[in-house]
Write a sequence for this structure.
């Protein structure tokens, strides 16, 4: 079954200077209104993908149109993309980044929930887990040691996509990891 136009990420090129696309998007996003549309679920062979839709005014004609924002967990890390296409005048832009912009983070939480990655146990390779956690999380030896003494413990919280990337980076260490959603942060209309 082909995805509906609402589920597809529309890739567009901007006629504007591509160097200014992201700064333009951030300025315009301050006037965003969140949509309650639920993101499509990933297939077994895909990484996790979350999508939100906001409304923004076209910089050329002022018409309010949808702007689609997608965060995807890939083996090489997080990919964030935004795309806008004005159906009235044809103006369009797309931007890409390696992180979710802070002004859009609450909308991802509202739509998809806030997630936490927990370290449940180190398994037999405690030193390997310690090294991996220190490297991936940027912890000092002392902080990593304290973390391991207080197992099980929460490593981080954020969007599901961010936690999946983190879990993937720690998976080789042999650590027992658990991903949990805080259901109270998710929009109950979904």
């Amino acid at each position: 079954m082909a995805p509906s136009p609402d589920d597809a990420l529309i890739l567009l090129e901007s006629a504007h200077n591509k160097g200014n696309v992201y700064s333009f998007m951030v300025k315009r996003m301050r006037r965003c209104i969140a949509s309650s549309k639920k993101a499509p679920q990933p297939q077994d062979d895909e990484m996790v993908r979350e999508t939100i839709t906001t409304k923004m005014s076209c910089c050329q004609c002022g018409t309010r149109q949808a702007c689609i924002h997608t965060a995807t967990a890939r083996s090489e890390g997080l990919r964030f993309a935004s795309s806008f296409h004005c159906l009235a005048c044809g103006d369009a832009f797309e931007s890409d980044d390696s992180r979710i912009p802070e002004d859009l983070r609450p909308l991802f939480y509202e739509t998809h929930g806030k997630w936490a990655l927990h370290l449940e146990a180190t398994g037999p390779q405690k030193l390997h887990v310690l090294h991996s956690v220190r490297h991936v999380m940027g912890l000092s030896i002392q902080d990593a040691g304290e973390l391991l003494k207080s197992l099980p413990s929460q490593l981080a919280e954020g969007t599901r996509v961010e936690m999946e990337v983190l879990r993937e980076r720690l998976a080789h260490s042999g650590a027992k990891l658990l991903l949990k959603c805080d259901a109270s942060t998710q929009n109950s209309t979904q």
User: Anything to note?
Assistant: The mean pLDDT is 75. The longest strand covers residues 64-74. The CA atoms of residues 11 and 83 lie 6 Å apart. The two ends are 22 Å apart (CA to CA).
